[in-house]
Amino acid sequence: MENRPLDQTDHQLLALLANNARLSNKELAARVGLAPSSCHERVRRLVATGAVQGFHADVNPAVLGYGIEAMIAVRIPQHSRENFERFRAYVITIPEVVDVYHVSGEIDFLVHVVARDAQHLRDLALDRFLSRKEVGHIETELIFDHVRPLVRA
User: What's the fold here for domain 61-143?
Assistant: First the structure.
């Protein structure tokens, strides 16, 4: 697959898809000024080269019965590739985990979670995070609001 640099049209397509992955090929083509066949080929190439990593639905956690969102900051006291990979592989299996960020600084991971209520969040922190031998310390911060800004080309 050809791996050429992204041009302005590619950036426009990526921004449109990031904001609404349900746009039809016909609508995408009209918005960027391409023929539908050319647009389809560009989107196919963007997927094949990894510029587009997937198409997702942004589901409201409250509809699924989750009334609380939080970020759990995790410190791994014994730094090793094995400990980081073991924790990462484990944490992505937890149903309440929304996103996992491996970060630099005093903490090693930021984990976005959802919970039904405060007790569920407490149990999640104690039973799913602090019970892991890789984890030395956690801090939990409630999320009051979460807004995803529009992507601009």
Answer: Alpha-Beta Plaits (3.30.70)
pLDDT at 37: 97
CATH number of 8-48: 1.10.10.10
State the residue for tokens 């050429």.
Answer: 4
Residue 106 in this model has a pLDDT that exceeds 70: yes
pLDDT in tens, 43-98: 999 999 999 999 988 889 999 999 999 999 999 999 999 999 999 999 999 999 99
- pLDDT at position 1: 54
Q: What is the residue extent of each domain of the chain? A: 8-48, 61-143
| Strands, sheet with 97-102, edge to edge from the N-terminal-most edge strand | 97-102, 109-115, 68-75, 137-143
pLDDT at 2 over 70: no
Query: HEC states along the chain?
Result: CCCCCCCHHHHHHHHHHHHCCCCCHHHHHHHHCCCHHHHHHHHHHHHHCCCCCCCCCCCCHHHHCCCEEEEEEEECCCCCHHHHHHHHHHHCCCCCEEEEEECCCCCCEEEEEEECCHHHHHHHHHHHHCCCCCCCEEEEEEECCCCCCCCCC
